[in-house]
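## tool: complex_structure
## caller: assistant
## args:
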Amino acid sequence: MIVEIGHFALILALVVAIVQAALPLAGAARGNVAWMEVGRSTALAQFLLMAIAMAALMHAYVTSDFTVVNVIENSHTDKPLLYKITGVWGNHEGSMLLWVFILSLCGAAVALFSNNLPPALRARVLAVQGMIGTGFLLFILLTSNPFLRELPPPLNGRGLNPVLQDPGLAFHPPFLYLGYVGFSVSFCFAVAALIEGRVDSAWARWVRPWTLASWCALTIGIAMGSWWAYYTLGWGGWWFWDPVENASFLPWLVGTALIHSAIVVEKRDTLKSWTVLLAIITFSLSLVGTFLVRSGVLTSVHAFAVDPARGSFILLLLLVAIGGSLALYAVRAPALKGGGLFAPVSREGALVLNNLLLSTGAATVFLGTLYPLFLDAVGGPKLSVGPPFYNKTFVPLMVPVLVAVAAGPLLAWKRGDLLGALQRLWAAFAAAVVVVLGALYVTSGGPVLAVLGLGLAAWTFVGVLAEWTERLKLFRIPARDSWRRARNLPRSAHGMTLAHLGLAISVAGIAASAFEVEHIDIVAPGGDLPLAGYTLHLDKVEKLQGANYVADDATITVKRGDAVIAVVHPQRRFFPLQQQTTSETAIRTNFLADLYIALGEPDQAGGWTIRAYWKPLVPWIWIGAVFMAFGGVVSLSDRRWRVGVASRLRAPAAQAAAGD
Amino acid sequence: MRRALATLLVLLALAGAALAVTPSERLADPALEARAREISKGLRCLVCQNESIDDSNADLAHDVRVKLRERLLAGDSDAQAVQFIVDRYGDFVLLQPPMRPATYVLWFGPGAVLLLAAGGMAIAFRRRHATDDAVPPPLSDAERERLDRLMRETEG
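## result:
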């Protein structure tokens, strides 16, 4: 019964989405206010219906309703409750339902928080949102319906893949989708602006918070996925340039370019048509990502050809959405007039450089991901494009980005003084030199590129701090005055500093991963394994019974000299239902380095393979990502985004600006 | 980003297989073993998604690792050993695609995009400056007065 309610809600959501796509658009064209307002009520209704559908599927999972095919295939009565719930999106049908649910959430958010938008713009934004919803709801109902029944029901389900039974991966898809789908709002704004033929700084102010929020969610989603890979795979890899990873990295790269170019539109009223194009491309790449992951094209081009229903449908959606919006862009963009002029060396120029390099980087990853598929599809040779390719193409493109991150914010709008900016970066240059020399000394001339990477991270970190202290006139005026300046500085400036510091921190972690120390050996209980100045003592290995698995649980005492640092328990878990083994690694971190220990196979003599790694600065990769996302959130809290508020509070705002 | 779920399904279906490089596979000569590790990092595990045979715990990766070490023991150079593997599995096994006409797009594409984009921007930039009035009109007296007032406030 509840399953049918969910099913009906889904069908009703499709009907509502069709109305949302058509009526407000017609209303905006004819100036019919009542029709335009339909956009808001349908967006809210769609959210309500999708929430019902989502809740119905969750209910089926929690109660283990094995008349539902989707539950049979992905759940089991023995599964812990958390994974019954998160199992809802651990499969194709459920994750598409989550996709559309988040889309409707974004639509409802636009409907609720857009009182200060011109009604026609709001109506058009919501109509475009309705069109996307229509496409994906059709996709779910026609090819991937999670509510299909099967009678008679089996006694129990087939269970969720053990790999997915992990807190990190359980919450990875919602964040990733919030990012992917959140970019649809920027896309809708871009399309609506093209229909209206008007892009101004007010438009940029409306778009930027949505883009920024999606970007934060995507940053967290990607970081969670990579962290999960790190602690799950048993040897500590965290990024593989795998097509599925690239699918999420592409919208992130272009989305990063978008939040930067939107600043130029807002402040200087220029780069408009480029920003609109970026908004379209960002969401298009989210769609491409969905296509890559959901169509099965990655497993094999031929598998896609054998069962083409889903893949072809998404491909069709892709062509309509991307082709349609780009065609609209081609027709309308020439009408968008550029505003303020600027010299090549200026804040605008630095942001253009950022856009140029990030877009080229995205194009590189796009080629590396899709060209092998293309070559295979046209009958060419099969190719692999792995880390060595990206290290030679993508990484060099990011070096100037990092150099510019420190210098860009020091340049003035319109016409900057590069020499002056570089002079103010002497501390950053000194820090880079010290770090490079220090790292060379410590690693006795270790991998040169990684050492230079560390130097680059130091340059960026200190450069960003230098800009921030300069704004506060820290150490040059009394601390109290600096504090006042810090409070008066727009939150978005603090947010930028935090996000850029995060970037530097992540880069340091990535570069330092080249210095890891590895020791893999067979150790008998009672034996020792030395690693980077530590001693790992294997006390014992025991069998433990888990909820739906049996584990080999090792007790390892980590010592430094005679001092006991920690006792850790890496495990190998065997899931009898799926006949699969997973590895639960033990990670001991002091935030400067991780001790990473995984339990391998036993041998005939009673020894166990222990895989132990010392990974310097690795946690910084994710700490940096958290900084980036947090910087985005701080920037979001800036009052200037609340457009109406800013105009009402003009007097206090002027005072704040006077303190700048 | 759901880090090769499909891969893992394949990998874990081979449950019981050893995790990546195992002690039993290792060569006694540390210099030779170091060479084997370095080469392994550039060879793809054929049943995985972008995982090298050095990292993979699939059976096939184990076989290739052992085969590679046999060749090194037999006195092959690095290039010869890699060629031996490529002859059997094709270019697909190389994580760095070889440079040949079919891959020119891949290798030169990023540079071409960068040049085209930079060139396009330079042209757009020049055109704007040529057509638009490059020198903004001077401030009117009222504007100058307002500017002075604002500057005084800022300083104060």
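## assistant note: Chain A is about 65% helix and 10% strand. The first helix of chain A runs from residue 2 to 30. Handing back to user.
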